[in-house]
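REVIEWER CHECKLIST
Item 1: Sequence provided? yes
Item 2: Single chain? yes
Item 3: Sequence as submitted:
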Amino acid sequence: MASRKAFALRIDEKTLSAMQRWANDDLRSLNAQIEFVLREALRKTGRLPKKSSKKR
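Item 4: Structure as written out by the authors:
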C-alpha cells in the first residue's frame, strides 16, 4: 500500500459543503472523496505515473 502523508487544506466553506454532500451521496468519508476527485483529475489529464504491467 502506498504511504500517506498528512496535508492541511484550506478550502472555502461552500466548496467544502458541496464535497461533503458528494461524499455522503457516494458513501465515502470527506477525505476519501477529496482523494478520489484529485486522483480522477490526475488520471484524466495523464499526470499519474503509468501502472506497472508486471505481475508478482
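Item 5: Key structural point noted by reviewer: The chain has two helices and no strands.
Item 6: Recommendation: ____
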